[in-house]
Amino acid sequence: MTSSHAASLAPMEDALATLLDGVAPLPVERQPCEQAEGRVLAAPVVAALDVPPFDNSAMDGYALHHEDAGQRLPVALRVAAGAPGERLERGHCARIFTGGQLPEGADCVVMQEKVQRVGDEAVIPADIPAGDNVRRRGRDVRAGAPLLDAGTRLDAAALGHLAGQGIVEVDVHRRPRVALLSTGDEIIDPGKPLAAGQIYNSNRPMLKSLLERFGAEVVLTRSVPDSPEGTRDCLKEAAEVADLVVSTGGVSVGEEDHVKAALETLGTLNLWRLAIRPGKPLALGQMEGPGGTPVRFVGLPGNPVSSYVGAWLFLRPLLGALQGCESMAELPRLWARSDFATSTGPRQHYMRVRLAFAPQGVSALAFSDQNSGVLSSCIDADALAVIPPHCEIAPGDKVECLWLRTW
Protein backbone atom coordinates (compact mmCIF):
# COMPACT_ATOMS: atom_id res chain seq x y z
CA MET A 1 0.00 0.00 0.00
CA THR A 2 1.40 3.41 -0.89
CA SER A 3 2.02 5.97 1.82
CA SER A 4 -0.47 8.40 0.24
CA HIS A 5 -3.17 5.75 0.30
CA ALA A 6 -2.41 4.90 3.91
CA ALA A 7 -2.51 8.56 4.89
CA SER A 8 -6.04 8.85 3.51
CA LEU A 9 -7.32 6.24 5.95
CA ALA A 10 -8.95 7.63 9.10
CA PRO A 11 -8.72 6.09 12.59
CA MET A 12 -11.85 4.36 13.79
CA GLU A 13 -11.95 6.61 16.86
CA ASP A 14 -12.39 9.70 14.67
CA ALA A 15 -15.36 8.21 12.85
CA LEU A 16 -16.93 7.07 16.12
CA ALA A 17 -16.54 10.53 17.65
CA THR A 18 -18.24 12.05 14.59
CA LEU A 19 -21.04 9.47 14.79
CA LEU A 20 -21.76 10.21 18.45
CA ASP A 21 -21.36 13.99 18.25
CA GLY A 22 -24.56 15.68 19.41
CA VAL A 23 -26.46 12.44 20.05
CA ALA A 24 -28.93 12.80 22.91
CA PRO A 25 -31.10 10.12 24.58
CA LEU A 26 -34.53 9.63 23.11
CA PRO A 27 -37.70 10.74 24.98
CA VAL A 28 -38.87 9.02 28.14
CA GLU A 29 -41.87 6.72 28.41
CA ARG A 30 -43.50 4.75 31.22
CA GLN A 31 -43.16 1.01 30.83
CA PRO A 32 -44.54 -1.96 32.80
CA CYS A 33 -41.67 -3.84 34.41
CA GLU A 34 -42.88 -7.13 32.97
CA GLN A 35 -42.24 -5.66 29.49
CA ALA A 36 -39.07 -3.72 30.36
CA GLU A 37 -36.34 -6.32 29.86
CA GLY A 38 -33.50 -4.73 27.93
CA ARG A 39 -34.84 -1.20 28.37
CA VAL A 40 -32.70 1.58 29.84
CA LEU A 41 -33.74 3.50 32.93
CA ALA A 42 -34.24 7.21 32.31
CA ALA A 43 -34.18 8.19 35.98
CA PRO A 44 -32.63 6.74 39.14
CA VAL A 45 -34.78 4.55 41.36
CA VAL A 46 -34.57 4.97 45.14
CA ALA A 47 -35.56 2.15 47.49
CA ALA A 48 -38.75 2.71 49.46
CA LEU A 49 -38.48 -0.52 51.48
CA ASP A 50 -35.89 -2.43 53.44
CA VAL A 51 -35.05 -5.78 51.83
CA PRO A 52 -35.60 -8.07 53.59
CA PRO A 53 -38.29 -6.11 55.45
CA PHE A 54 -37.69 -7.99 58.73
CA ASP A 55 -35.17 -10.33 60.33
CA ASN A 56 -35.89 -13.82 59.01
CA SER A 57 -34.55 -17.34 59.12
CA ALA A 58 -32.08 -18.44 56.48
CA MET A 59 -33.08 -22.10 56.91
CA ASP A 60 -35.43 -24.57 58.59
CA GLY A 61 -34.51 -24.92 62.25
CA TYR A 62 -35.09 -23.49 65.72
CA ALA A 63 -35.01 -19.82 66.74
CA LEU A 64 -33.80 -18.83 70.22
CA HIS A 65 -31.72 -16.31 72.11
CA HIS A 66 -28.04 -17.26 71.79
CA GLU A 67 -27.55 -17.20 75.59
CA ASP A 68 -30.04 -20.08 75.86
CA ALA A 69 -27.93 -22.36 73.65
CA GLY A 70 -26.65 -25.62 75.15
CA GLN A 71 -29.95 -26.33 76.91
CA ARG A 72 -33.08 -28.40 76.51
CA LEU A 73 -35.74 -25.82 75.61
CA PRO A 74 -39.53 -26.02 75.32
CA VAL A 75 -40.75 -25.40 71.79
CA ALA A 76 -43.14 -22.51 72.40
CA LEU A 77 -43.91 -21.30 68.86
CA ARG A 78 -44.19 -22.52 65.29
CA VAL A 79 -43.23 -19.85 62.74
CA ALA A 80 -43.95 -20.48 59.06
CA ALA A 81 -42.94 -18.14 56.25
CA GLY A 82 -45.57 -15.45 55.76
CA ALA A 83 -46.93 -15.64 59.33
CA PRO A 84 -46.84 -12.53 61.52
CA GLY A 85 -44.10 -12.33 64.13
CA GLU A 86 -44.68 -13.17 67.79
CA ARG A 87 -42.67 -12.69 70.95
CA LEU A 88 -40.49 -15.54 72.21
CA GLU A 89 -39.83 -15.66 75.95
CA ARG A 90 -36.32 -16.38 77.17
CA GLY A 91 -35.69 -20.02 78.02
CA HIS A 92 -37.81 -21.15 75.06
CA CYS A 93 -37.28 -21.81 71.37
CA ALA A 94 -39.45 -21.62 68.25
CA ARG A 95 -39.75 -24.07 65.40
CA ILE A 96 -39.06 -21.85 62.38
CA PHE A 97 -38.95 -22.37 58.63
CA THR A 98 -36.91 -20.70 55.91
CA GLY A 99 -38.11 -17.13 55.40
CA GLY A 100 -40.07 -17.09 58.65
CA GLN A 101 -39.98 -13.84 60.62
CA LEU A 102 -37.59 -14.10 63.55
CA PRO A 103 -39.66 -13.85 66.78
CA GLU A 104 -38.97 -10.87 69.02
CA GLY A 105 -36.63 -12.11 71.75
CA ALA A 106 -34.74 -14.50 69.44
CA ASP A 107 -31.44 -13.57 67.81
CA CYS A 108 -30.21 -16.77 66.14
CA VAL A 109 -31.39 -19.92 64.38
CA VAL A 110 -29.98 -23.44 64.74
CA MET A 111 -30.41 -25.64 61.69
CA GLN A 112 -32.73 -28.56 62.34
CA GLU A 113 -30.05 -31.15 61.60
CA LYS A 114 -28.14 -30.05 64.71
CA VAL A 115 -31.14 -30.23 67.05
CA GLN A 116 -32.46 -33.31 68.81
CA ARG A 117 -36.22 -33.18 69.29
CA VAL A 118 -37.67 -34.82 72.39
CA GLY A 119 -41.42 -34.46 72.44
CA ASP A 120 -42.28 -30.79 72.91
CA GLU A 121 -38.69 -29.90 73.72
CA ALA A 122 -35.54 -29.41 71.66
CA VAL A 123 -31.98 -30.15 72.73
CA ILE A 124 -29.94 -27.20 71.46
CA PRO A 125 -26.17 -27.46 70.93
CA ALA A 126 -23.88 -25.02 72.72
CA ASP A 127 -21.91 -22.06 71.42
CA ILE A 128 -24.42 -20.64 68.94
CA PRO A 129 -23.46 -17.04 68.11
CA ALA A 130 -25.95 -14.20 67.88
CA GLY A 131 -27.07 -13.64 64.29
CA ASP A 132 -26.32 -17.19 63.20
CA ASN A 133 -28.47 -18.22 60.22
CA VAL A 134 -30.41 -14.94 60.37
CA ARG A 135 -30.96 -12.67 57.39
CA ARG A 136 -31.08 -9.21 58.94
CA ARG A 137 -33.58 -6.56 57.94
CA GLY A 138 -32.14 -4.34 55.20
CA ARG A 139 -29.19 -6.64 54.54
CA ASP A 140 -29.75 -6.32 50.77
CA VAL A 141 -31.34 -2.87 50.46
CA ARG A 142 -32.01 -0.02 52.87
CA ALA A 143 -35.02 2.26 52.40
CA GLY A 144 -33.88 5.59 51.01
CA ALA A 145 -30.75 4.16 49.41
CA PRO A 146 -30.14 4.21 45.62
CA LEU A 147 -31.61 1.09 44.05
CA LEU A 148 -30.71 1.47 40.36
CA ASP A 149 -28.97 4.30 38.53
CA ALA A 150 -30.23 6.09 35.45
CA GLY A 151 -28.68 4.45 32.42
CA THR A 152 -29.04 0.94 33.85
CA ARG A 153 -30.08 -1.58 31.22
CA LEU A 154 -32.69 -3.77 32.84
CA ASP A 155 -31.71 -7.42 32.96
CA ALA A 156 -33.18 -10.26 35.01
CA ALA A 157 -31.43 -9.26 38.25
CA ALA A 158 -32.40 -5.58 37.91
CA LEU A 159 -36.02 -6.49 37.23
CA GLY A 160 -35.99 -8.74 40.29
CA HIS A 161 -34.55 -5.85 42.31
CA LEU A 162 -37.45 -3.62 41.22
CA ALA A 163 -39.98 -6.33 42.01
CA GLY A 164 -38.53 -6.60 45.53
CA GLN A 165 -39.68 -3.02 46.06
CA GLY A 166 -43.15 -3.71 44.71
CA ILE A 167 -42.43 -1.53 41.65
CA VAL A 168 -44.52 -2.40 38.59
CA GLU A 169 -43.67 0.51 36.22
CA VAL A 170 -40.48 2.42 35.40
CA ASP A 171 -39.42 5.40 33.29
CA VAL A 172 -37.25 4.28 30.37
CA HIS A 173 -35.97 5.84 27.18
CA ARG A 174 -37.92 4.98 24.08
CA ARG A 175 -36.39 2.28 21.94
CA PRO A 176 -34.54 3.68 18.92
CA ARG A 177 -36.53 3.01 15.76
CA VAL A 178 -34.31 1.65 13.00
CA ALA A 179 -34.88 1.25 9.27
CA LEU A 180 -32.68 -1.47 7.78
CA LEU A 181 -31.95 -1.16 4.04
CA SER A 182 -30.17 -3.66 1.81
CA THR A 183 -28.67 -2.41 -1.44
CA GLY A 184 -27.82 -4.40 -4.53
CA ASP A 185 -29.99 -6.08 -7.16
CA GLU A 186 -27.92 -9.23 -6.69
CA ILE A 187 -29.14 -9.59 -3.09
CA ILE A 188 -32.21 -11.84 -2.80
CA ASP A 189 -34.36 -12.59 0.24
CA PRO A 190 -34.11 -16.17 1.54
CA GLY A 191 -36.94 -18.35 0.29
CA LYS A 192 -36.86 -17.02 -3.27
CA PRO A 193 -35.18 -18.87 -6.14
CA LEU A 194 -31.69 -17.69 -7.03
CA ALA A 195 -30.90 -16.59 -10.56
CA ALA A 196 -27.40 -16.53 -12.01
CA GLY A 197 -25.23 -13.98 -10.25
CA GLN A 198 -27.52 -13.60 -7.23
CA ILE A 199 -26.86 -14.38 -3.55
CA TYR A 200 -29.09 -14.57 -0.50
CA ASN A 201 -29.30 -11.65 1.92
CA SER A 202 -27.44 -12.74 5.05
CA ASN A 203 -26.89 -9.19 6.31
CA ARG A 204 -30.53 -8.37 7.00
CA PRO A 205 -31.38 -11.14 9.50
CA MET A 206 -27.94 -10.85 11.07
CA LEU A 207 -28.13 -7.09 11.57
CA LYS A 208 -31.78 -7.19 12.62
CA SER A 209 -30.83 -9.62 15.38
CA LEU A 210 -27.91 -7.45 16.51
CA LEU A 211 -29.94 -4.24 16.40
CA GLU A 212 -32.63 -5.77 18.58
CA ARG A 213 -29.97 -7.15 20.91
CA PHE A 214 -28.64 -3.60 21.24
CA GLY A 215 -32.09 -2.36 22.25
CA ALA A 216 -33.48 -1.09 18.93
CA GLU A 217 -36.86 -1.65 17.34
CA VAL A 218 -36.51 -2.45 13.64
CA VAL A 219 -39.55 -0.73 12.13
CA LEU A 220 -38.75 -1.05 8.42
CA THR A 221 -36.77 -3.37 6.17
CA ARG A 222 -36.34 -2.68 2.47
CA SER A 223 -34.37 -3.95 -0.49
CA VAL A 224 -33.04 -0.89 -2.30
CA PRO A 225 -32.96 -1.03 -6.12
CA ASP A 226 -29.71 -0.17 -7.89
CA SER A 227 -30.93 3.16 -9.22
CA PRO A 228 -30.54 6.76 -8.03
CA GLU A 229 -34.32 7.29 -7.88
CA GLY A 230 -35.07 4.03 -6.08
CA THR A 231 -32.31 4.63 -3.55
CA ARG A 232 -33.51 8.17 -2.83
CA ASP A 233 -37.14 7.03 -2.42
CA CYS A 234 -36.15 4.31 0.05
CA LEU A 235 -34.05 6.71 2.11
CA LYS A 236 -36.88 9.24 2.18
CA GLU A 237 -39.38 6.59 3.30
CA ALA A 238 -36.98 5.41 6.01
CA ALA A 239 -36.46 8.93 7.36
CA GLU A 240 -40.21 9.27 7.91
CA VAL A 241 -40.37 6.41 10.43
CA ALA A 242 -36.91 5.93 11.93
CA ASP A 243 -34.45 7.55 14.32
CA LEU A 244 -31.62 5.69 12.60
CA VAL A 245 -31.27 4.37 9.06
CA VAL A 246 -28.78 1.55 8.50
CA SER A 247 -27.84 0.37 5.03
CA THR A 248 -25.55 -2.37 3.82
CA GLY A 249 -23.57 -1.99 0.64
CA GLY A 250 -23.66 0.89 -1.80
CA VAL A 251 -21.22 3.06 0.17
CA SER A 252 -18.17 2.56 -2.02
CA VAL A 253 -17.31 4.45 -5.21
CA GLY A 254 -18.60 2.06 -7.85
CA GLU A 255 -20.98 3.09 -10.62
CA GLU A 256 -23.83 1.19 -8.96
CA ASP A 257 -23.20 2.59 -5.46
CA HIS A 258 -25.94 5.22 -5.24
CA VAL A 259 -26.33 5.69 -1.46
CA LYS A 260 -23.81 8.51 -1.18
CA ALA A 261 -25.36 10.65 -3.91
CA ALA A 262 -28.93 9.94 -2.77
CA LEU A 263 -28.20 10.88 0.82
CA GLU A 264 -26.52 14.11 -0.21
CA THR A 265 -29.77 15.19 -1.88
CA LEU A 266 -31.73 14.56 1.36
CA GLY A 267 -29.24 15.63 4.01
CA THR A 268 -25.54 15.43 4.72
CA LEU A 269 -23.07 12.61 4.37
CA ASN A 270 -19.47 11.97 5.27
CA LEU A 271 -17.87 8.98 3.57
CA TRP A 272 -15.07 7.57 5.65
CA ARG A 273 -12.25 5.32 4.54
CA LEU A 274 -11.26 3.78 7.84
CA ALA A 275 -7.93 2.33 8.86
CA ILE A 276 -9.61 -0.88 10.01
CA ARG A 277 -9.97 -4.38 8.65
CA PRO A 278 -12.62 -5.54 7.97
CA GLY A 279 -14.91 -2.61 7.23
CA LYS A 280 -12.86 0.10 5.51
CA PRO A 281 -15.75 2.02 3.85
CA LEU A 282 -18.23 3.62 6.24
CA ALA A 283 -20.87 6.24 5.45
CA LEU A 284 -22.12 8.51 8.23
CA GLY A 285 -24.82 11.09 7.63
CA GLN A 286 -27.99 12.74 8.76
CA MET A 287 -31.41 13.49 7.32
CA GLU A 288 -34.48 15.24 8.64
CA GLY A 289 -37.48 13.33 9.92
CA PRO A 290 -41.00 14.56 10.71
CA GLY A 291 -40.94 17.97 12.34
CA GLY A 292 -37.27 18.44 11.57
CA THR A 293 -36.12 15.74 13.98
CA PRO A 294 -32.62 14.43 13.19
CA VAL A 295 -32.40 11.00 11.59
CA ARG A 296 -28.95 9.41 11.76
CA PHE A 297 -27.59 7.36 8.89
CA VAL A 298 -24.94 4.63 9.03
CA GLY A 299 -23.91 2.91 5.81
CA LEU A 300 -22.06 -0.33 6.45
CA PRO A 301 -20.08 -2.30 3.87
CA GLY A 302 -21.85 -5.12 2.06
CA ASN A 303 -19.47 -7.90 3.02
CA PRO A 304 -21.20 -9.74 5.89
CA VAL A 305 -18.22 -9.86 8.25
CA SER A 306 -17.62 -6.14 7.70
CA SER A 307 -21.26 -5.47 8.58
CA TYR A 308 -21.04 -7.72 11.64
CA VAL A 309 -17.91 -6.05 12.97
CA GLY A 310 -19.22 -2.58 12.07
CA ALA A 311 -22.41 -3.24 14.01
CA TRP A 312 -20.43 -3.98 17.17
CA LEU A 313 -18.00 -1.09 16.73
CA PHE A 314 -20.44 1.62 15.61
CA LEU A 315 -24.11 0.67 15.93
CA ARG A 316 -23.87 -0.60 19.50
CA PRO A 317 -22.38 2.63 20.95
CA LEU A 318 -24.75 4.77 18.87
CA LEU A 319 -27.80 2.87 20.09
CA GLY A 320 -26.43 3.05 23.62
CA ALA A 321 -26.16 6.85 23.35
CA LEU A 322 -29.72 7.08 22.00
CA GLN A 323 -30.91 5.12 25.06
CA GLY A 324 -28.75 6.95 27.61
CA CYS A 325 -26.78 3.78 28.38
CA GLU A 326 -23.13 4.67 29.02
CA SER A 327 -22.12 1.05 29.53
CA MET A 328 -22.70 0.44 25.81
CA ALA A 329 -20.13 3.07 24.80
CA GLU A 330 -17.36 0.48 24.74
CA LEU A 331 -17.16 -3.28 24.62
CA PRO A 332 -15.62 -5.02 27.65
CA ARG A 333 -11.91 -5.65 27.15
CA LEU A 334 -9.66 -8.47 28.28
CA TRP A 335 -6.21 -9.77 27.43
CA ALA A 336 -5.52 -13.22 26.04
CA ARG A 337 -2.58 -15.17 24.64
CA SER A 338 -2.77 -15.65 20.89
CA ASP A 339 -2.65 -19.10 19.32
CA PHE A 340 -1.91 -17.49 15.94
CA ALA A 341 0.66 -15.49 14.04
CA THR A 342 -0.30 -12.44 12.01
CA SER A 343 0.95 -9.08 10.85
CA THR A 344 -0.79 -5.85 9.94
CA GLY A 345 -0.14 -2.98 7.58
CA PRO A 346 -1.65 0.49 8.03
CA ARG A 347 -5.05 -0.84 9.09
CA GLN A 348 -6.05 -2.10 12.53
CA HIS A 349 -7.34 -5.66 12.30
CA TYR A 350 -10.32 -7.01 14.23
CA MET A 351 -9.85 -10.76 14.17
CA ARG A 352 -12.66 -13.12 15.10
CA VAL A 353 -11.48 -15.35 17.95
CA ARG A 354 -12.85 -17.91 20.33
CA LEU A 355 -11.64 -17.56 23.90
CA ALA A 356 -10.51 -20.59 25.89
CA PHE A 357 -10.46 -20.12 29.66
CA ALA A 358 -8.06 -22.25 31.67
CA PRO A 359 -6.38 -22.02 35.12
CA GLN A 360 -3.20 -20.78 33.45
CA GLY A 361 -5.00 -17.96 31.63
CA VAL A 362 -7.10 -17.04 28.61
CA SER A 363 -6.20 -18.05 25.06
CA ALA A 364 -7.47 -16.44 21.86
CA LEU A 365 -8.09 -19.03 19.17
CA ALA A 366 -8.38 -17.41 15.76
CA PHE A 367 -10.64 -18.62 12.99
CA SER A 368 -8.39 -19.82 10.18
CA ASP A 369 -10.01 -17.74 7.40
CA GLN A 370 -10.37 -14.08 8.38
CA ASN A 371 -11.65 -12.89 4.98
CA SER A 372 -14.47 -10.33 5.22
CA GLY A 373 -16.79 -12.53 3.19
CA VAL A 374 -16.46 -15.57 5.49
CA LEU A 375 -19.39 -15.16 7.88
CA SER A 376 -18.70 -18.55 9.47
CA SER A 377 -15.77 -16.86 11.24
CA CYS A 378 -18.33 -15.01 13.39
CA ILE A 379 -20.45 -17.94 14.51
CA ASP A 380 -18.29 -19.16 17.40
CA ALA A 381 -16.50 -15.86 17.96
CA ASP A 382 -16.48 -14.76 21.59
CA ALA A 383 -14.42 -11.68 20.89
CA LEU A 384 -12.62 -9.48 18.40
CA ALA A 385 -8.85 -9.57 18.85
CA VAL A 386 -7.56 -6.05 18.21
CA ILE A 387 -4.30 -6.10 16.26
CA PRO A 388 -2.87 -2.56 15.96
CA PRO A 389 -1.47 -1.21 12.68
CA HIS A 390 2.08 -2.18 11.68
CA CYS A 391 2.18 -4.96 14.25
CA GLU A 392 3.67 -8.46 14.31
CA ILE A 393 1.93 -11.07 16.47
CA ALA A 394 3.48 -14.45 17.25
CA PRO A 395 1.84 -17.40 19.04
CA GLY A 396 1.91 -16.75 22.78
CA ASP A 397 1.85 -12.97 22.47
CA LYS A 398 -0.78 -11.12 24.46
CA VAL A 399 -3.56 -9.51 22.45
CA GLU A 400 -6.37 -7.24 23.57
CA CYS A 401 -9.84 -8.66 22.91
CA LEU A 402 -13.26 -7.03 22.76
CA TRP A 403 -15.83 -9.29 24.46
CA LEU A 404 -18.91 -9.99 22.32
CA ARG A 405 -20.94 -12.10 24.75
CA THR A 406 -22.68 -9.03 26.06
CA TRP A 407 -25.68 -6.81 25.31
Strand content: 25-35%
The coarse silhouette is elongated
CATH superfamily of the largest domain: MoaB/Mog-like domain
SSE class: alpha/beta
- The percentage helix is 10-25%
Average residue pLDDT? 94
Topology, number of strands: 28
The biggest sheet, with number of strands, parallel, antiparallel or mixed sense and barrel status, is: 6 strands, mixed
Physical arrangement of strands within the biggest beta sheet:
7-4-6-5-9-8
Count of alpha and pi helical runs = 7
The CATH topology assignment of the largest domain is Molybdenum Cofactor Biosythetic Enzyme, Chain A
Q: Ranges with pLDDT <50 over ≥5 residues?
A: 1-5
Tell me about this structure.
The structure is a single chain. The chain has 407 residues and is α/β, with parallel strands linked by helices. The protein folds into four domains: 3-27 and 174-328, MoaB/Mog-like domain (Molybdenum Cofactor Biosythetic Enzyme, Chain A, 3-Layer(aba) Sandwich); 36-50 and 140-173, Alpha-Beta Complex (Molybdopterin biosynthesis moea protein, domain 2), CATH 3.90.105.10; 56-135, Molybdopterin biosynthesis moeA protein, domain 3, CATH 2.170.190; 333-403, Beta-clip, CATH 2.40.340. Helices cover 18% and strands 32% of the residues. The chain contains seven helices and 28 strands. The chain has helices spanning 3-7, 12-20, 156-163, 203-213, 228-241, 259-266, 304-322, and strands spanning 28-32, 45-46, 56-57, 61-64, 72-79, 93-96, 108-111, 116-118, 121-123, 134-135, 146-148, 169-173, 177-183, 187-188, 199-200, 217-224, 244-248, 267-273, 276-277, 281-288, 294-300, 333-338, 342-343, 348-358, 361-366, 383-387, 392-393, 398-403. The strands form eight sheets. It has a six-stranded mixed sheet, with no helix packed on it. Helix 4 packs parallel to helix 7 and helix 5 (228-241) crosses helix 6 (259-266). The radius of gyration is 30 Å and the shape is elongated. The two termini are 37 Å apart. The model is unreliable at 1-5 (pLDDT under 50).
